[in-house]
Each structure stands twice: as structure tokens, then as C-alpha cells.
Write a structure and sequence with these properties.
Layout (H helix, E strand, L loop, with lengths): L1 E6 L3 H11 L4 E8 L2 H11 L4 E5 L5 H11 L3 E4 L6 H11 L2 E4 L14 H4 L2 H6 L3 E4 L7 H12 L3 E11 L13 H8 L3 E5 L2 E5 L5 E6 L3 E7 L4 H8 L5 E7 L2 H12 L8 E3 L2 E3 L1 H8 L13 E12 L2 E12 H8 L3 H18 L7 E4 L5 H8 L7 E4 L6
Parallel strand pairs: 1-2, 1-4, 2-3, 4-5, 5-6, 6-17, 7-12
Antiparallel strand pairs: 7-15, 8-9, 8-12, 10-11, 11-12, 13-14, 15-16, 16-18
Helix pairs in contact: 1-13, 3-4, 7-14, 13-14
Bound molecules: NADPH dihydro-nicotinamide-adenine-dinucleotide phosphate.
Length: 396
């Protein structure tokens, strides 16, 4: 029986609130964010009186500490932005609260993310007997748990790992991002990077691409990009010779992205406009559609999984494990599209695993370090069923 504090009232926070409210592992729930009215709207949409709401600036450790001291949660689910990871972890350490997030820390003034900042908290969490669970969305999150499951049950050694992420949905807008536009554009416009033979290989943005076939969807052009779980997976599975991440983009999306970059709207440094300091990408976020609003007209599916080649009992084997999620089904359940849904369901389930004592540890953990079996046993009934295929052509 646990008290949970959810921080962030966006698309992912909405899904987490729905799922946590339906989970008897949690006795008390608080949803806090920068704008309290958004928390109130979500609590109303969930339709129970189990969710309390509060205003908090998660960039401010003192505010977080005051909130945690008054509510006394057992665990915080951080679904605000990656910029807030470290302040929330600091407050957790000060108040003796466990921690879970879905995206690794990224400084606001540098479009760069890596785990080193959060891994540096390991000893402090351990000394306090607290657990921090990093990257428990879908990717990162289920992608790493799928890899852990493959390593535990189907391979003696994983040699080649390709995480494939397809969004074949159509929201009817000329251009919109599926999660926070600022974070999304920063992620997809950076250089590509993959792991090969013990070193990182860098590519120009979207330089490497190929058509891949996705189940129930068909062929989609897929682009090699850098994604954060590659860093922790090659560390925890040293037998991996090559690890890559592929994401599908439509031509229209890429054209918009190129224009946005070429005209300077993806800039993250402040400029002065009419005597006021603005950051172009933050202004762009304000005029783009809110990802939460896309759900009502979103049709089609996402398909995210791991294509793995390695050795079992001395023989080479291939393996594909994936989930397909329908935007309309996600919308019916939580009023959000599938990208928020596929992130929020694993975050709520991960916190539930902690609350029920199934995932426990002292220190900072990536999800692949935790037992995948019970998590995957429940993932389907919580809305994200998964499929395995053996000894097939992986196309990669
Ligand atoms: P949104 O932008 O929709 O929501 C973010 C929420 O955080 C908003 O409610 C926002 O408040 C709040 N927030 C931002 N800054 C602060 C602050 N300083 N203090 C308090 N609250 C704050 O984002 P999403 O819901 O789309 O994404 C949430 C997280 O999930 C992100 O970190 C994203 O990277 C991650 N993610 C992970 C994925 C995965 O598979 N692992 C996939 C997709 C997303 P306000 O409403 O006032 O702006």
C-alpha cells in the first residue's frame, strides 16, 4: 500500500493518473504540476475522488521538498520534462522518497542527454536506502525490458540489437509532434549515433535510413537516430556487438522539420524580440498543436519492438518482440493518443511493481537491471499486449 506523487500534467501524466487511480496498490494519489488547473482537469476526467492536486515548480527544490514533506509519498513518478529530473531526485533524497522517470536528464541550454548525471546519484540513493528507477516509459522503458526478457529466456549472448519504433498513425494535421514539441524536436534533429564493436559511430542527422516492415502496418521508411536506452543497454549487455535505434518519419514531417531548422525556429539559445527575451523552440511549442489534443482524430497504430540476433545453445537465433498500440483504443481508455499511452502505462506499472515490493533495490537502476517477468506478465492486461516471433528475417 503506497502513496504516490505524480509530477507533470501533460499527455503522459494524464495516462499515469488514469492507470494509477485504477490500481489498488496505491492508497493515496497526488498529481502536481506547474499549472494546477491542468491537474484538476485530469483528476476530473479520471472521475474518482482519489486524486488530490497541487501546484509545484519542479525546477525549485525547496518547493518540491515542501510538497513532499506535506504529502509524504513513498514514490514520485516524474512525468514532467527531462530538465526537472535532477531537482526532483534532489528533493527525493532530502525527503526519503523513491523515484521513477521516463526520460533521462537533459540540460535546458544544451540539446544533449546522457545517463551520467543521474547515474552519479547511485551512491546517495543507496546510502539512504532509496530506489530510483530510470527510463520506465516505452522507449526507453519497455524496449529495455524486452531486451532483458530476451537475454533471460532466449539468448546466451545478444550480439545485434535493433530497436524499431514506428508510428503509423495519422492525426490529420500538417505538422505536430506526439509528445512535448521542444523535447521531441531536440531529440530528432540531433546527430545519429549507434554502437558498433565497442565504440560509438556518429552519423549526420537522418543520414542512414531504410524501409522496414512493421506487423499489421507494412513498410515504412525508418531512420537511424540516437536514443538514450542504447547507452545503458550496451553497458549492461557487454556481448552486444552492434546496437541501433530506428524511428519512422513521413516525408511531410521531415520537410517541416528541415524548414523549422533552416529558419532558426529550432534554436535553443535566447534571442531578444521587441525587447523581450524568447527561446525560438519554446515559442514554436506555444504555436504548435498540443500533443494532448491530437487524440480525438488520431487513427492507426504504433509498433515498437526489439529485433535481436544472438546465440542460444551454440546456435544463431533471431527474435522479434513488439507491441502494437492503436491510437483510437488509447483514446477511448484515457483520452490521449498512443504515444502518451505507451509511455504512461509502463510508468504506472513500474511504480506499481515498486509499491508491491516486486521491484526493489537501493540505488539508481535502469529498468533492464530489474526482473522483466512480472512486469511483462501484467503489461498486456494493462493495455499493452506484446508478441514474440522466433527465427525470422529481421531485415537488419
Ligand atoms: P507535456 O509537455 O505534455 O507535459 C509535461 C508536463 O510537465 C506539463 O504539464 C508541464 O506543465 C509540466 N512541467 C514542465 N515544467 C515543469 C516545472 N518546472 N514544474 C512543474 N511542472 C512542469 O509532455 P509529455 O506528457 O508529452 O511528456 C512527459 C515526459 O515523458 C517527458 O519527459 C518526455 O520526454 C517523456 N516521454 C517519454 C517517452 C518514453 O517512451 N520513454 C515517450 C514520450 C515522452 P505545463 O502544463 O504548465 O506546461
Amino acid at each position: 500500500m503506497s502513496k504516490v506523487l505524480i509530477i507533470g500534467a501533460g499527455g503522459v501524466g494524464t495516462v499515469v493518473a488514469h492507470k494509477v487511480a485504477a490500481d489498488s496498490a496505491f492508497t493515496d494519489i497526488m498529481l502536481a504540476s506547474r499549472t494546477k488547473s491542468k491537474c484538476d482537469e485530469i483528476a476530473k476526467a479520471v472521475g474518482t475522488n482519489r486524486i488530490q492536486t497541487a501546484q509545484v515548480d519542479a525546477d525549485n527544490v525547496a518547493e518540491l521538498v515542501a510538497l513532499m514533506r506535506s504529502f509524504q509519498p513513498d514514490i514520485v513518478i516524474n512525468v514532467a520534462l527531462p530538465y526537472q529530473d535532477l531537482t526532483i531526485m534532489d528533493a527525493c533524497l532530502e525527503c526519503g522518497v523513491n523515484y521513477l522517470d521516463t526520460a533521462n536528464y537533459e540540460p535546458k541550454d544544451e540539446a544533449h542527454f546522457e545517463y551520467s548525471w543521474q547515474w552519479a546519484y547511485h551512491e546517495r540513493f543507496k546510502e539512504k536506502g532509496l530506489m530510483a528507477i530510470l527510463g520506465c516509459g516505452f522507449d526507453p522503458g519497455v524496449s529495455a525490458i524486452f531486451t532483458a526478457y530476451a537475454a533471460k529466456h532466449h539468448f546466451d549472448e545478444i550480439h545485434y540489437l535493433d530497436i524499431v519504433d514506428c508510428n503509423a498513425g495519422n492525426h490529420g494535421m500538417a505538422f505536430a509532434t506526439n509528445f512535448n514539441p521542444e523535447i521531441n524536436i531536440r531529440e530528432v534533429t540531433q546527430k545519429g549515433r549507434y554502437w558498433e564493436n565497442g565504440a560509438w559511430v556518429e552519423t549526420a542527422p537522418h543520414e542512414i535510413h531504410k524501409p522496414l516492415n512493421y506487423p499489421e502496418i507494412g513498410e515504412r521508411e525508418s531512420y537511424l537516430i540516437y536514443h538514450e536506452e542504447l547507452e545503458s543497454l550496451v553497458k549492461h549487455y557487454p556481448t552486444i556487438k552492434r546496437a541501433r535505434f530506428w524511428m519512422t518519419f513521413g516525408q511531410e514531417y521531415l520537410t517541416h522539420l528541415r524548414v523549422i531548422q533552416n529558419i532558426g525556429m529550432a534554436r535553443i539559445d535566447p534571442i531578444i524580440y521587441n525587447g523581450v527575451e524568447i527561446v525560438p523552440i519554446q515559442f514554436l511549442k506555444a504555436v504548435l498543436p498540443d500533443p494532448k489534443s491530437l487524440g480525438a482524430n488520431y487513427h492507426g497504430q504504433t509498433s515498437i519492438g526489439c529485433r535481436i540476433r544472438g546465440i542460444k545453445d551454440g546456435k544463431e537465433r533471431t527474435y522479434y518482440i513488439y507491441n502494437n498500440c492503436d491510437h483510437e483504443v488509447a483514446y477511448r481508455q484515457t483520452g490521449t493518443q498512443a504515444v502518451s499511452f505507451t509511455t504512461g502505462v509502463p510508468a504506472a506499472l513500474g511504480a506499481s511493481m515498486f509499491a508491491r515490493g516486486i521491484w526493489r533495490g537501493e540505488g539508481v537502476f535502469n529498468v533492464e537491471q530489474l526482473d522483466p517477468d512480472k512486469f511483462l506478465a501484467e503489461l498486456g492486461e494493462r493495455g499493452l499486449p506484446w508478441v514474440e516471433k522466433f527465427d525470422i528475417d529481421l531485415e537488419l
